[in-house]
Amino acid sequence: MLVSDRVQKSMKQGSWIRRMFEEGAELKQQYGEENIFDLSLGNPIMEPPVEFHQELRRLAENPLPGMHRYMENAGYTETRAAVAKQLSLEAGVNFTMNDIIMTCGAAGALNVVLKTILNEEDEVIIFAPYFPEYINYIDNHGGIGKVLPTDEQFVPRLDVLEAAIGAKTRAVLINSPNNPSGAVYSEDFLHQLGELLSNKETKYGKQIIRINDEPYRKIVYDGQQCPQVWSHYRQSIIVTSHSKDLALPGERIGYIAVNPGFGQRKELIDGFIYCNRTLGYVNAPALMQHLVRSLQDVTISVAEYQRKRDVLCDHLSEVGYSVMKPQGTFYMFPKSPLEDDIAFVRELLEWRVLTVPGRGFGSPGYFRISFCVDDRTLEGSLAGFRKVAQKFKLY
Amino acid sequence: MLVSDRVQKSMKQGSWIRRMFEEGAELKQQYGEENIFDLSLGNPIMEPPVEFHQELRRLAENPLPGMHRYMENAGYTETRAAVAKQLSLEAGVNFTMNDIIMTCGAAGALNVVLKTILNEEDEVIIFAPYFPEYINYIDNHGGIGKVLPTDEQFVPRLDVLEAAIGAKTRAVLINSPNNPSGAVYSEDFLHQLGELLSNKETKYGKQIIRINDEPYRKIVYDGQQCPQVWSHYRQSIIVTSHSKDLALPGERIGYIAVNPGFGQRKELIDGFIYCNRTLGYVNAPALMQHLVRSLQDVTISVAEYQRKRDVLCDHLSEVGYSVMKPQGTFYMFPKSPLEDDIAFVRELLEWRVLTVPGRGFGSPGYFRISFCVDDRTLEGSLAGFRKVAQKFKLY
Description:
Two copies of one chain form a homodimer. Chain A is an alpha/beta fold. Chain A has 13 helices and twelve strands. In chain A, the strands form three sheets. Chain A has a seven-stranded mixed sheet, sandwiched between helices. Chain A has a three-stranded antiparallel sheet with strand order 9-12-11. In chain A, strand 3, helix 6 and strand 4 form a beta-alpha-beta unit. The first copy, chain A, is globular and about 60 Å long. In chain A, about 50% of the residues are buried. The interface between A and B is large, with 72 and 72 residues.
């Protein structure tokens, strides 16, 4: 066979998100795109903020000499300094450019981190429901993903984590605001998690790294702020991108930030810069680095997403679905009225509504709805949700 | 330790190119940038062609709806079709968009290919002198790099290759036009190589993949064309980028192209698309995909590089260095007048000329000069080369 055993195996397990995407593409061909209500993908419908377009025009009209050349693998010093400045403001912790490495999106950032820190068979703990690519990323670098449960509010269960951490645990990966649940972890939870990890570090005499995957940090609702992770645990890093807050997912621009108080941080950061190069990313795309430099305090309209959330969430509750109102992100993760979430998602397909079964995220019995879609799609889906609710006598 | 054993080990072995970069940065601080003649990096000094700037302005002023969103992981169909069209014209082979996958540069492309095809301990054959990152890329995906010699003209020795291919050989990686030697492999050589590989396929009953790393394909001199690889071997793919031909190295835009006649190509291409996603590249940067679509027949001024080559090559020959005139790329790879190439490179440093010792490319006894620099740097270096030649009585 041409394709390696490992890749073949993981291709076969496949991705439920992609499978729905493909079934959706077929339906779209059959019925016309405007008759399909596709809530399966996290591909933000909004355009980047007006400031982005201004900055792009400005740079296109006044190109900087050498602005498309290689730069240091960690990224432009000006961009890293701008990220550090904004992060310091938000976090109340003093970051410098040396704490920041620009990357090809959060996916690039997370692969760089895992490549740097994982020895063969080191464990990385994740929590279900989880972003399914985590499994691939951990596997890419020889790690073992250990999946732990969350509670009814989709918050990691600390009692289970307490029992699960062992001598092989290298990192705990959390994702708040959470894809697919929309949960935002509280200050109190982060503090308890930090204490638990500190105790385990002492017990095992090694550093345990908390990786915070935060591409949705700015997408939180009801006037809340996403709690900062830094003060609660020294060995904290974040991986993130501008895919959601600036609506640039196709551009692959993100960064790694390392807690200035992290023990032996110089060694770690040198490792990140090295792996950013040797994994073949080389550097984050140059033009995007120039652009996001002056857009660190800009975000797309969160109110717009909140409106969409409310329309959908109110409707689902009204017709009898059991759903936690998301505090952030543009996803919700209702209980599947059928035990078999795949069967249920197929019921919705009958009404040309595309969603993703929960087992794609390690949580069977749920399904994910993505509401970063235009209003026509969102409103068009409501009838389908109602019809299926009627069929299963939810109201 | 925080950094994995494997990464630590390979960081210690380090990169000679980077080491020279760092020594150079120190010298620049000490003496001022204008007094250092840095010929160590392949960072093209030229700006992208005027057509690129026009296209960027046009797109900035008339943004397409959704032009920064996710697209299919293989890239925009329009971009892939444009690449296929140009490649068909150049190669006389009929490519379609289905043979093309857009990637984050050639480095991204090569990592995707290796991830897809390598089982643990599969061998990839490379030839010294080689681009040093090959070692890292092969190692990233569990492969074993097997380094074979080239002849006096830096062309792979087929007799040695014949003896070296075995049951574990998965791929042969060639790089023409070659970094660091500037060699361009002839039609005749490619044909013989194809025959050799076909025989080995029959012998071992398995496909052996020829990977052609071709970012310098358009940078060839004296009115020559770079011979096309396609007709000489079915199991051929190329990995390449627009880093050099459009002077966009910081933008990370490249592609994989698969020979339309490749056996079981659908399986292979699906694997590439999958690994492009799961390695965390996700897709090639969106804006660059839009831009290069209409620039497939555009190239920076090769004449300008040829002029620089001639100035430097003539001078080196005149003062007694033994150097093969590069037929392509913007590198040359002279013999080190001292057996110890590191000692020799340090002699040049005394005259503030930065080059890279040949052992960084697997070929001790040589050194690499990069001439993609401005004329001031190039001309400023000539005195240093002469002084050192005098010291060692080369003329």
